[in-house]
Target: Chromosome partitioning protein
Amino acid sequence: GTQAQNEGAALVYAFTNQKGGVAKTTTTVNLAAAFTERGLRVLAVDLDPQANLTMSQGIDPDSLEVSMYDVLVHGLPIKRVIKRREFDVACASIDLAGAEIAMSTKIGRERALAKALKAVKDEYDYVFIDTPPSLGLLTINALTAADKVIVPVQCEYLSMRGLIQLQNTLSMVKEELNPRIEIEGILPTLVDTRTVHAKEAIEILEENFGDRVFASRINKTIRFAEAPVKGMSVLKYDPDGKAAYAYRELAEEVLGNGKR
Ligand code: ADP
Ligand code: MG
Model:
């Protein structure tokens, strides 16, 4: 199993879909909170220049002196950009937008994150990487550092073409950079239970990806927009609400698959 393969070091998940607004950040934050609730040690790495994960834990990215940019571009130890909140957060700020260009001429540019994580992997059970809405060098770094990928998919605007593109990138990374990488699961998000369309979208996903589609579904609710404004996960903001339970259920499913 994965435990033996990782020898006690953290298992690394990337949350990836090159489409924006599909709940990558929401899933990273709330699954991290759900794992933390179960006593697991989680580091969430914000690899998006928009710094939504950082902000959603109540951290102002503009106030940061150092961020993931310095880790990736200058080799700053990742510990220096980690802040303790509901779980540990390796913070991003807008300067990360310049990281891809700054890294582009470096040898080993695809492995900068994997290298940085080595120093802290023993201190966590899980590392979750939130990625930007593109398949550029930042996302390639996440996929190179990860053991598994969770792909949130917005059921309202299902893009099969986008998913095939993501699969192609994953195959390339697997071949050239990281043979371990696998899709852990595809997560239907922003599911509007009242519409026929959402049901059809999930059916299309299941026809194409079979049991790689999680049994868990994340329904649409305003709680997910409210919680980050307060700097909280939904598990902290509304601990007994349906939104919190949806991510607790996903945590159970992921942990069940991982058999740690
Ligand atoms: P991404 O990181 O993929 O761009 P986000 O996690 O930032 O996506 O989510 C996009 C927007 O949708 C955010 O405003 C978020 O609060 C909202 N959102 C995410 N999940 C849900 C949900 N299940 N129901 C309603 N709104 C959601
Ligand atoms: Mg995001």
